[in-house]
Every structure is written in C-alpha cells, then in structure tokens.
Specification:
By secondary structure, the chain is an alpha+beta fold. Helix content is 48%, strand content 19%. The chain is built from three helices and three strands; from the N terminus they run βααββα.
C-alpha cells in the first residue's frame, strides 16, 4: 500500500496537521501509526483538500 505521512498530506491540502488528523477520523480514512509518524493511504490528501474546500465555502455550516 502506498502511503503518505499525515504532515505531508496536510501540507499538500493546505491545512494543519491537527485538522488532517480530525478530518481523517471524520472521513473514516485509514491511518497507520509507525513509531512517532502517522501515515494515510496515498491519495488521502485529495480527500482532505476537498474537505478543506467544502469548509472554506461554507458547505459544512449548519443553519440555526
């Protein structure tokens, strides 16, 4: 399985590492931890980038 460090995925998606970690759990992306480094499957940065765009455009906001 090709994989990418979560810090690199976050950088490519233009988000923080903490956001990448949180959104990975929300999106149910597989995360593998080896030592002190967490990895996501290659291509997960595209999902994180799409999530960032959705949040930025306000699609994630709920109306009250």
């Amino acid at each position: 399985m090709n994989r990418i460090p979560i810090t690199e995925a976050a950088k490519q998606a233009g988000i923080t590492r903490e956001q990448a970690r949180y959104w990975s759990r929300l999106l149910d992306l597989d995360m593998i931890k080896e030592g002190r480094v967490s990895y996501l499957a290659a291509g997960s940065e595209n999902m994180l980038s799409a999530m960032a765009q959705a949040v930025k455009s306000g699609q994630g906001a709920c109306e009250t």
